[in-house]
Amino acid sequence: MFHGWKGPFDPNYPLCGASTKVWRGSSGKKKRGDCSWTPTHSGLDGKWPSIAVEVAWTEPPGKLYKDMKFWLTQSSGNVNIVLAVRIYKRGRISIEHWKMGARTPITVQKIEITRNPAPNCEKIQGSMQLSFEDIHMRPKGPTDTDFVISHGDMQNLASQVWEAQDRNL
Q1: By residue range, what is the domain housing residue 126?
Q2: What pTM was computed for the model?
């Protein structure tokens, strides 16, 4: 379902999908994300992704929070962005952008997508902006831009989710 989010989003913003890898945290705990990306031209060692995505469809909210927290607290500062996607059974998707605060993870932005009974008429609260510095772990240059998950990207994700839910009813 999230296959479209696994590869590069844009040829001008190259990200390498790394979702099949298992990472070992500083405590020894192991974790595989639902999706994750490492920038291809950042000069980073690639031991950890800079973006991880965790998705909860049937899992309790506490597990999603625990999974998100792993990435931000166990990666020695290498994972800077976690997108926590919660899919509800009644036509709603919540996407939260998390990053590490001074001591604990904090929510940077939250987007809600609500299913409308009319086809292709999802209600989406805007787009999500991901900081260039958080993705590439270096200052933004004069031609560098933040990455934006657009309204269209959100609509595409929602359509895939609704399709999967309709098949499973």
Answers
A1: 3-167
A2: 0.84
